[in-house]
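agent> Task received from the user: take the single chain below, predict its 3D structure, and emit structure tokens. No templates, no multimer pairing.
agent> Plan: (1) validate residues, (2) run structure prediction, (3) serialize to tokens, (4) report one or two observations.
agent> Step 1 OK, no nonstandard residues flagged.
tool_call: predict_structure(input=
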Amino acid sequence: MNARSCASKMAHGLALFLLLAFTLLPAAWAKEGGDQYPNGAENWFAGSVPPPGHYYVNYFGVYTGNLKDGSGHNALFDGSTPSVNATFNAFRYVEMTHLRLFGADYGVHVIVPLVYQSVDMGGTASETNTGDITINPFILGWHHPQWHAVAGLDIFVPTGYYDRNDARTSIGAHYTGFDPLFGVSYMPKSGWEASVKLMYDLKTTNGATQYHSGQEFHTDYAAGQHIGNWMAGATGYFVQQTTDDTQNGVSVPAAPGLYDAGRRGRVLAIGPSFGYVNRSHVVFMADWQHETLVQNRFGGDKCWFKIILPVDALFHSGAR
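)
tool_result: status=success, residues=320
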């Protein structure tokens, strides 16, 4: 997927989302063995929480990918390569309070996503439905002149649509996940920024299948330059599964041509990113992230459009 096809895909996906938004509830993007956290979502300002107040963040994007085997080649299932196409929108509410703990600002957030997903695996099936909600009751943010840091605990609640008989239509993961996180942003007066968000994903067992997805280390990152109200650079993510997938307490055996024993996934993504901050402090960001070095999971391209709205500032501005 090149930049032009990415933009075309986003435009088509946006039209689809606007059509669906009037008839469907928000939904999610994860399924068993997949990602409950939307890797690559937090890049610029990844270690810097906003000042006390209320914020709305909207994430809209598209993803296309093919299943890769343990050697990074296209996997084969019934003679063809499984593929996925997804269009998603996530609604996030953030509240940073005036309460301070351990010298840090304290806040909370909740994320409710919506996904249209189409999977071809020996036949195509699609689903549009609600997915796993993310809550974080414990966000701490520290600020210094050039350095900023954040710590917290994302909790993935298994609220998403799940069909144990057809993984192609399962958008929710059907298990609870816990993701402790630490982010840091370096933003000197020169206008350069380097940000990274480090996470470690712990998952419970899927009670319907007794399948337990392995633990994962994953990180989002950004590096670039702020020029006036604009920003430009590179963003991406890295995921490395650190323990085996198991079922009924036993490591998942290898499936030749599909995945290795234990099904430990890996992916590195990188791509261009641009952003703009208007006079009302509304932030607009656009990213294209290409996945490479993929093993035992889907690999492809992800395109994002993200908006951060400072609700209090906009309300007071509109009141004047």
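agent> Step 4: summary for the user.
The longest helix spans residues 3-21.
agent> Done.
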